[in-house]
TrEMBL record, chain A:
<keyword id="KW-0786">Thiamine pyrophosphate</keyword>
<feature type="domain" description="Dehydrogenase E1 component">
    <location>
        <begin position="16"/>
        <end position="332"/>
    </location>
</feature>
<protein>
    <submittedName>
        <fullName>Acetoin dehydrogenase</fullName>
    </submittedName>
</protein>
<dbReference type="GO" id="GO:0004739">
    <property type="term" value="F:pyruvate dehydrogenase (acetyl-transferring) activity"/>
</dbReference>
<dbReference type="GO" id="GO:0006086">
    <property type="term" value="P:pyruvate decarboxylation to acetyl-CoA"/>
</dbReference>
<dbReference type="Pfam" id="PF00676">
    <property type="entry name" value="E1_dh"/>
</dbReference>
<dbReference type="InterPro" id="IPR029061">
    <property type="entry name" value="THDP-binding"/>
</dbReference>
<keyword id="KW-0560">Oxidoreductase</keyword>
<dbReference type="InterPro" id="IPR050642">
    <property type="entry name" value="PDH_E1_Alpha_Subunit"/>
</dbReference>
UniProtKB/TrEMBL annotation, chain B:
<dbReference type="InterPro" id="IPR005475">
    <property type="entry name" value="Transketolase-like_Pyr-bd"/>
</dbReference>
<protein>
    <submittedName>
        <fullName>Pyruvate dehydrogenase E1 component beta subunit</fullName>
    </submittedName>
</protein>
<feature type="domain" description="Transketolase-like pyrimidine-binding">
    <location>
        <begin position="7"/>
        <end position="182"/>
    </location>
</feature>
<dbReference type="InterPro" id="IPR029061">
    <property type="entry name" value="THDP-binding"/>
</dbReference>
<keyword id="KW-0786">Thiamine pyrophosphate</keyword>
<keyword id="KW-0670">Pyruvate</keyword>
<dbReference type="Pfam" id="PF02780">
    <property type="entry name" value="Transketolase_C"/>
</dbReference>
<dbReference type="InterPro" id="IPR033248">
    <property type="entry name" value="Transketolase_C"/>
</dbReference>
<keyword id="KW-0560">Oxidoreductase</keyword>
C-alpha cells in the first residue's frame, strides 16, 4: 500500500476535486447551448463523490476504464481538462483528435485508458488489462527483478472499471466477473447505481435484490455503500484497492447515487415525470458537495473564505481550459482516413 | 537459403504458433479446447507442455467477454491468439470485435493498438449443419480496421499466421476445415514479398480462375484434369479478403483473353466473390472480354442431412463445367466430369476425415 492509501481522508482535498468536476460539468452545460459542442454529452452532476473517492487511492500506474458518462472518471484520474474540452468541440487537439467526442476519452499519461459508450464494452477490457498486469508481475517475479517500487512485496498495479446499474444487466458483465474471479485479477468493479438506465427505472429492469450480492455470488469481495458520501466511498475504496493490490482478487463496490441532469444533454428533465415525485429534490439534499461542505465547516476543517477561494481558483482554471480548448484547430479531411491500421 | 519441409496445413499452423510463442514472449494462445486432447484438429498439440499453462490456455464459454479480455490484454502489451473452432461461435463476440477491436486504434487517434489474432474455422462435412459450418467471411471483411486473411496453401498458412501474430492490428485468420489435412511445402525462409496480394497457384493461358480458400483446391483439381483435355487454366488464390488484389486478377485476365470464373466458398449474396467482380469492373473496365461467371453456395443455410448437403456445395465438377461453358467447349464436359468423379462421399475430403467431431 502507498502512504497515501493509509492516510485518513483529506476531506478538503476530496471536496476540491469533487467541486472541480461539478464546476467543469456546469460550465460544459452552460456552453452546450452555443451548439458548438456537437456530440452526445452525458454529465455526471450529482455523482462526483464516487469517481473522486475511488481515484484518490490510485497512482498513474493504475488504470481506469469508463463508460459514456465518463467526464468525472477522466478528471478524477488526472485527465487533461483542456484536451477533454477540445474533444467535445471536435478539435484536432482533443484527447482523441476529434474522433471520439464526449463518449470516447483517453489520457494514457494519467492512466485513464478509455471510456466508450457501448454499455459493458469496456468491462472485459479492464479485466484483460488487469490480467496482463498480473502476468507481467509474475514474469518479473520469476526474473527476480523488483517491480514493487516501495509497495508491499507482491503488490501489483490495479485496474478500475466504472459502470452503471444498467450495465449489470449485460451478459458480458457476468462473463467478465467469472473470469476475474477465476484468475484472481487485481481489478475493481465500481457500480454506480443511479437507479435509471436512460429513463427506465431499475424496478422495470431487475428483480428486487441487491446488485452487490450477485457479484458476491460470483465470488467477488462485494460491498455496497452510499455513493454520495465521499468519506464513505473513500474508506470502502481504500480497503478494496488494498485487497486488489495485494492479490486478494477482484473487488466489487455498489455505490448508490443519483444523476441530476437529463440522461444526455445539459438540461434538467424532472418535468418529464419518469422519476418519482420528489426523488430528485431529495437526492439534491444529499448532494455529495453539500454534505462534505457541512462537515468541513462543522469540524472547522475549512472556512467560508477558503471555500470561496476554491471557487475562484476553479473558475479561473476552467475559464482558461475553455480558452485553450477553443484555440483548437479543425481536424482535416486529409487526416480522416489515418490510423485505420497501426 | 531454403529450408523446405512437407507438412499438412494443420501442422503448418501448429508450427507457426510454436515459432511465434518462442519469438514473442507476450503471445498467448487461448480458446475453448486449446489444450484439450483433440488439440483443435492438431493445431495446438504439445504447445501447453512447451510454453506452460499461463500462455496456452482454455477459457470459459464466454466468447464476447473473452474477446474483450483479449483486447484489454492486447492494449496492455500482450499478443493474444484467440481460437474459435467454428466461425459460428465468433458471432457471439461480434460486439467486441466490431465495436472495440476493429476501431480502437482509429477512434483513439492512433494512440493505442490491438495486436490480436482471431482464428476461426469455416468448413463443411459430416453433417456440421446450419450452425457449425457457416461461411461468414464477407460479413467480417466489411468491417473497417479488421484485417481478414484466408490462406489456402500450406506455406501461406504458416507464413500468414506468423504475419498475423506479429501484426499490431486485429486479424481474423480464417481456416477452411477441409484444408487442415492438405499437404504442401513450407519454406521458412520465404521472402515476405511473396505473402502480399493474391497468390498465383497455377499458370494458364485460356481462362482466369479467381478462387477462395478451399475452392482454390477444387479449382486446382479441375485445372489438372482440364489440362489433360487441352484447356489451360490460371488459378489465382484470393487470400487477403479486405485488400482484394484486383490488379493481380486483371493482369491475369490480360493474359487469358479477359475470360473469368470466380469460385467463392460462401453463399452468393453480398459475397467477396461479388466484391471482386465489382472492383474489377470499376477499376479495370476493359479487363473482361467475355461475360464472367461466379460460382458460390446457395443463399440458404446448409441442412445437416448428408443426402441433401452434398448438392449444396459446388466443387471441381461445377468449376470445370463453368470453365468449358465460358470457353464454348461444352462438348468436353462429359469426359472431363468423368475424369473428375471420385467415389468419395461429398461430405468427406478424404478417407481420413471421419466423424463425429
Amino acid at each position: 500500500m502507498t502512504a497515501m492509501s493509509q492516510a485518513p481522508a483529506d476531506l478538503k482535498h476530496l471536496y476540491y476535486q469533487m467541486l472541480r468536476i461539478r464546476r467543469a460539468e456546469e460550465a460544459i452545460a452552460r456552453r452546450y447551448a452555443e451548439q458548438q459542442m456537437r456530440c452526445p454529452t452525458h454529465l455526471c452532476i450529482g455523482e462526483e463523490a464516487i469517481a473522486i473517492g475511488v481515484c484518490a487511492h490510485l497512482t498513474t500506474q493504475d488504470k481506469v476504464f469508463s463508460n459514456h458518462r465518463g467526464h468525472g472518471h477522466y478528471l478524477a484520474k488526472g485527465g487533461d481538462l483542456p484536451r477533454l474540452l477540445a474533444e467535445l468541440y471536435g478539435f484536432a487537439e482533443g484527447c482523441c483528435g476529434g474522433r471520439g467526442g464526449s463518449m470516447h476519452l483517453t489520457d494514457l499519461a494519467a492512466g485513464f485508458i478509455a471510456s466508450t459508450p457501448i454499455v459493458g464494452g469496456t468491462v472485459p477490457l479492464a479485466a484483460g488489462y488487469a490480467w496482463a498486469e498480473q502476468m507481467k508481475k509474475s514474469v518479473t517475479a520469476q526474473g527476480g527483478a523488483s517491480a514493487a517500487g516501495g509497495r508491499t512485496p507482491g503488490a501489483t498495479n490495479v485496474v478500475v472499471i466504472f459502470f452503471g446499474d444498467g450495465c449489470f444487466e449485460e451478459g458480458v458483465m457476468h462473463e467478465t466477473m467469472n473470469f476475474a474471479v477465476l484468475k484472481k485479477l487485481p481489478l475493481l468493479f465500481i457500480c454506480e447505481n443511479n437507479q435509471y438506465s436512460v429513463m427506465t427505472p431499475l424496478a422495470e429492469r431487475q428483480p428486487k435484490r441487491d446488485i452487490y450480492k450477485i457479484a458476491a455470488a460470483h465470488g467477488l469481495t462485494a460491498v455496497s455503500g452510499d455513493g454520495n458520501r465521499v468519506d464513505d466511498v473513500y474508506e470502502l475504496a481504500q480497503a478494496a484497492v488494498a485487497n486488489a493490490r495485494n492479490g486478494l482478487g477482484p473487488q466489487f463496490l455498489e455505490l448508490h447515487t443519483h444523476r441530476w441532469p437529463e440522461h444526455c444533454g445539459p438540461n434538467e428533465d424532472d418535468d418529464l415525470g419518469y422519476r418519482n415525485p420528489g426523488e430528485l429534490a431529495e437526492w439534491k439534499l444529499r448532494c455529495p458537495l453539500l454534505q462534505t461542505r457541512q462537515v468541513l465547516l462543522a469540524e472547522r476543517l475549512s472556512n467560508d473564505a477558503e471555500l470561496a477561494h476554491m471557487e475562484t481558483k476553479l473558475a479561473e482554471e476552467i475559464e482558461q481550459a475553455f480558452a485553450r480548448a477553443l484555440q483548437g484547430s479543425r481536424p482535416t479531411i486529409e487526416r480522416m482516413g489515418q490510423h485505420l491500421y497501426a | 537459403m531454403r529450408d523446405v519441409r512437407v507438412m499438412s496445413y494443420g501442422e503448418a499452423i501448429r508450427e507457426a504458433l510454436d515459432d511465434a510463442l518462442a519469438k514473442h514472449p507476450e503471445m498467448l494462445l487461448i480458446g475453448e479446447g486449446v489444450p484439450d486432447p483433440k488439440t483443435i484438429f492438431g493445431t495446438t498439440q504439445g504447445l501447453r507442455e512447451k510454453y506452460g499453462a499461463e500462455r496456452v490456455l482454455d477459457m470459459p464459454l464466454a466468447e464476447n467477454g473473452m474477446t474483450g479480455i483479449c483486447i484489454g490484454a492486447a492494449l496492455a502489451g500482450m499478443r493474444p491468439v484467440l481460437v474459435h473452432q467454428r466461425i459460428d461461435f465468433a458471432l457471439l463476440s461480434v460486439d467486441q470485435l466490431v465495436n472495440n477491436a476493429a476501431k480502437w486504434h482509429y477512434m483513439f487517434d492512433g494512440q493505442q493498438q490491438v495486436p490480436l489474432v482471431i482464428r476461426v474455422i469455416i468448413g463443411r462435412g459430416w453433417g456440421q449443419g446450419p450452425q457449425h459450418s457457416q461461411s461468414l467471411q464477407a460479413m467480417f471483411a466489411q468491417v473497417p480496421g479488421l484485417k481478414v486473411v484466408m490462406p489456402t496453401t500450406v506455406g501461406d498458412a504458416y507464413h500468414l499466421m506468423l504475419e498475423a501474430i506479429a501484426d499490431n492490428n486485429p486479424v481474423l485468420f480464417i481456416e477452411h476445415r477441409w484444408l487442415h489435412h492438405v499437404h504442401g511445402e513450407v519454406d521458412k525462409h520465404r521472402p515476405a514479398a511473396e505473402l502480399s496480394g493474391a497468390a498465383l497457384l497455377r499458370q494458364g493461358a485460356d481462362i482466369t480462375l479467381a478462387a477462395f480458400s478451399h475452392m482454390s483446391i477444387e479449382a486446382l483439381k479441375a485445372a489438372t484434369v482440364l489440362d489433360k483435355h487441352g484447356v489451360s487454366v490460371e488459378v489465382v488464390d484470393m487470400r487477403h479478403l479486405n485488400e482484394l488484389d484486383v490488379d493481380r486478377v486483371a493482369s491475369s485476365l490480360a493474359k487469358t483473353g479477359g475470360k473469368l470464373l470466380i469460385a467463392d466458398c460462401a453463399p452468393e449474396m453480398a459475397s467477396i466473390g461479388h466484391q471482386l467482380l465489382s472492383k474489377l469492373v470499376l477499376a479495370h473496365r476493359n479487363s473482361l472480354q467475355q461475360a464472367p461467371r461466379l460460382i458460390a453456395y446457395p443463399n440458404h443455410p446448409v441442412p445437416t442431412s448428408h443426402f441433401v448437403a452434398n448438392d449444396y456445395y459446388p466443387g471441381a465438377e461445377q468449376i470445370a463445367s463453368a470453365v468449358l461453358e465460358i470457353l464454348d467447349k461444352s462438348e468436353l464436359t462429359e469426359s472431363v466430369i468423368r475424369d473428375l468423379q471420385s467415389d468419395l462421399p461429398k461430405d468427406q475430403p478424404d478417407r481420413s476425415f471421419v466423424g463425429p467431431f
